[in-house]
Design a protein that fits this description.
By secondary structure, the protein is mostly helical. It folds into two domains: 97 residues, no CATH class; 160 residues, Intergrase catalytic core (hpI Integrase, Chain A, Orthogonal Bundle). Helices cover 54% and strands 3% of the residues. The protein contains twelve helices and three strands. Helix 6 crosses helix 9 and helix 10 packs antiparallel against helix 11.
């Protein structure tokens, strides 16, 4: 009996290690893999303690129990911790499905309180990594992934549909955003992931024309089409059910990332294309009084 238990535990650990190896070999950032690995290892121990011998046997109730589990200190897990755990499991099960180890995701119905009381909040890094992986689901075209890459450069609304190949400066890692009803024209900074995606997208369109909008004109239809691409990624990543997550959450993530790296609120406002410092602070969830 003890040998059977050890064999079952070894099987589960091999499955998780296989997923981590696939994650490390993918577009997922090395820093993200390092960050989620301890959570995945704790999940492995949690499954083992509940007699679960393979990932495909992890039920929604088991997954939710792990997400909501108390800390080792005995304290109740914070909302942010529960969100981080759920994002990690969703990334794990996405790779497990890709490897044929499971058919579904037991976290899809795990509902958590919103991370914030705001109408729109910045995404967190783990959510962005999951969304990036989701955005690359189609091997036939990088259009959706390119839309997400532009959103990471703070493009939103009509700005997404207006970007043409000539606006993208891969050498400098930036893209010219033409502005919109509520935003000013500006240079947007591409992430490393976004630069790689847009390089592939420009090759697909032979270096000319609109980057992500394939219809005629650049009016309301273009805005709806490109914003729909971002919304589709959020849905597939399981984030659309969050009441404080919207397509603008991607630009808010990018701006908050710049702020946390040392950019002043004035620079953040310019990068977002907004005139008001108060508006920029609101977008990134920064309280002036703190």
């Amino acid at each position: 009996m003890q040998n059977d238990t050890r064999a079952s535990s070894a099987l589960l650990r091999r499955e998780l290690e296989t997923c981590l190896i696939a994650m490390a070999a993918s577009e997922v950032a090395a820093s993200t893999t390092e960050r989620v690995t301890p959570v995945i290892e704790r999940f492995c121990e949690f499954l083992g303690s509940h007699g679960v011998v393979a990932l495909r046997l992890a039920s929604p109730s088991i997954a939710e129990s792990f997400v909501r589990a108390r800390l080792q200190s005995g304290l109740i897990a914070s909302g942010a911790t529960m969100h981080d755990r759920r994002s990690t499991l969703r990334l794990l099960f996405r790779f497990a499905r890709r490897l044929g180890l499971v058919d579904g995701d037991p976290t899809l119905d795990v509902l958590l309180p919103p991370r914030s009381s705001r109408r729109t909040r910045p995404l967190i890094d783990d959510e962005v990594e999951l969304a990036r992986d989701v955005a690359l689901w189609s091997l036939a075209s990088r259009r959706v992934a390119a839309s997400w890459a532009l959103a990471e450069a703070t493009a939103r609304g009509r700005e997404l549909s207006c970007v043409v190949a000539g606006d993208v400066d891969l050498r400098s890692g930036r893209v010219w955003l033409h502005g919109g009803k509520r935003t000013l024209a500006r240079w947007g900074s591409l992430t490393e992931w976004g630069t790689r995606v847009l390089r592939g997208r420009l090759a697909e369109i032979n270096g000319g024309g609109p980057v992500v909008y394939e219809g005629g004109g650049r009016g309301a239809a273009g805005e709806v089409s490109t914003c729909s691409a971002i919304s589709t990624v959020l849905v597939r990543a399981g984030l659309a059910g969050e009441p404080d997550v919207r397509p603008a959450s991607v630009a808010a993530w990018a701006a908050r990332r710049q702020f946390d790296a040392g950019a002043g609120i004035g620079e953040v406002a310019r990068n977002l294309g907004v005139r008001s410092l108060d508006q920029a602070a609101q977008i990134i969830g920064w309280d002036w009084n703190q």
